[in-house]
Amino acid sequence: MRLPLALLALAALGAAAVGAGREAEEAAQAGRFSTPEQHRCSWELRSAAGASELRLSCRPPAGGGAARSCAYRGEPRRCPAYGARSRQYWRQILGRLRRRRHPCAQGGPLSARLCGPGRAPPEAQLRLLPAPGPGPSPPAAAAEPTEDPAETYCAERWHSLCSFFVGFWEG
After folding, report:
1. Measured CA distances, 25 to 29, 71, 120, 164, 165 (Å)
2. Count of CB atoms within 10 A of residue 85's CB?
3. C-alpha torsion angle, residues 45, 85, 99, 31 (rounded to 10)
4. Nearest to 95 by CA among 87, 84, 85, 83
5. Predicted confidence (pLDDT) per residue in 30-89, tens digit
6. What percentage of residues in the chain have a pLDDT greater than 90?
7. What is the largest CA-CA distance in the chain?
8. Fewer CB within 10 A of the terminal residue: the chain, N end or C end?
9. What is the DSSP letter of 73?
10. Do the Cβ atoms of 36 and 101 come closer than 8 Å?
11. Which helix (H) or strand (E) holds 12?
């Protein structure tokens, strides 16, 4: 009688440890990449309470100026495909950042192909957080990012193909 209870308790503790390990794995991840302009960037992903923050620190090539830091924030868990394919989501996001000439420059929101327009709410996209500065912050209307040309000019059913050609054209 004691043996089955002991095995049950051991199994429950093992499952709790695996779940805690998975949460710790999602809580903080880090890595590095280079941009087409040879900026060397390091990134760190932090997740808490449904929101995720991707922090970047980019150094330009030798003699290219000062290093820049920035952060993107969003709620990728609001995307239905994120739960089953979160690794693919983050690979696509980092791939988009790699292709940007200046990852910390103001641009459109970051979204993975699996959570693109029509597949997830806008909150699932990662948006560049305003940099803290000494002066007053600009009005919210001026801080809105520009839209992706593929989203503007392509019908939803052609979005994938159109995005490919727009990405190819922009380099």
Report:
1. 7, 20, 24, 32, 35
2. 15
3. 30
4. 87
5. 999 988 888 899 999 998 877 899 999 999 888 777 888 999 999 999 888 888 888 898
6. 18
7. 73
8. N
9. E
10. yes
11. helix 2-27
